[in-house]
Design brief:
By secondary structure, the protein is mainly α. 93% of the residues lie in helices and 0% in strands. The protein contains three helices and no strands. The N and C termini lie far apart (80 Å). 7% of the residues are buried.
């Protein structure tokens, strides 16, 4: 069980690092691997009637870390949305300036 828990926590660290670096494809791949491992871990724990207190501790930690990662993903998404809006404003400003310059040149 300890090896599986260690691998789950290591994968969680790797997913977090990928998210922090903005490597979304890598984060998704690692998270898929982590999800599969977590499902296998939970199945094995239930079948073995494992240490419930330890299992609760591990799952509570993973839940808290997941929530932090979700928060970071939302933060990145808001930043990207803001940058896209800035680019759109810039495109509109360039277009308006072009119209102004072309209009003045025609006069």
């Amino acid at each position: 069980m300890t090896a599986a828990v260690d691998r789950l926590l290591a994968l969680t660290d790797e997913v977090q690092a990928a998210i922090s670096a903005g490597h979304w494809r890598e984060a998704a791949q690692l998270d898929a691997e982590r999800s599969t491992l977590l499902q296998a871990f939970l199945s094995n724990e239930r079948a073995a009637n494992g240490n419930v207190a330890h299992l609760n501790t591990v799952l509570t930690d993973l839940h808290a870390r997941n929530n932090r990662m979700i928060g970071e993903v939302h933060h990145h998404r808001r930043l990207l949305s803001h940058k896209v809006a800035e680019l759109e404003r810039g495109k509109k400003a360039v277009a308006a300036y072009g119209e102004l310059v072309l209009g003045a040149a025609r006069d």
